[in-house]
Amino acid sequence: MTKVATWNVNSIKVRMPLVTAWLEESKPDILCLQEIKCLAEDFPTLEFRGLGYHAAVVGQRTYNGVAILSREPGDAVITALPGNGEDPQARYVEARFGDLTVASIYLPNGNPVASEKYPYKLAWMTRLRAHAKALLARETAFVLAGDYNVAPTDDDVYDPVGWREDALCRLESRSQYRALLHLGFTDAFRLFDAAPHRYSFWDYQAGRWNRDEGLRIDHLLLSPQAADRVEAAGIDKTPRSWEKASDHTPVWCEIGAPRGVKL
DNA sequence: ATGGTAGCCTTGCTA
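ok -> structure tokens follow
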């Protein structure tokens, strides 16, 4: 059994005590982090080694930054999404852990929609889809985990009308997300919970957490070979309630051992 | 009520 989780921590420096607490109580085998907001050299790699985790880090000063923490060291590490050698934004890291490959994704937010940020988001999603297609051709188990900055349907938003024109909910963002999904992925969370109003992010402002007014934008997308093995998934809301919380909370799934027989 | 919060190494930008 391999427990894989994703958590946008909004600064690893500030969130280190909470990440430590969550690792110790939830014991994921692999934890994908987003918005670490630091250079790789400033990432607390040694502290995580002390907790029993290896780290693959793609850092950037001030903004973005992704990492994968893992009980076993990963190999075949990829530190950028292919397709744009000029892209300086640290938003993708991928590594292989035995028969399971995992990527930590921080998809661009895309707001404001009228700015260059929105076409950048959509182009990034096109690149992600191309890379995902290449990964699917391997016919192996993998998980694309992260902050997608897309709420797939109105059920994933506390106020769908108010958010309709936002880059997280716009038609183009949702179409791109569905095109990715329709390559053959499974949203791990939705296999186990079909209810509306299940959120992974609550804005810091206006008491959104206390009112449970959030969005579900953090996802674990499973390749068919991973989906065949998934045994559980969920959103752990507890860390959002802690002091000095991130505005996101962890989403996790459990991938069982490969089946010995053909289905 | 055009606000509100959080983090960065900042005095605005990003979310």
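The mean pLDDT of chain A is 97.
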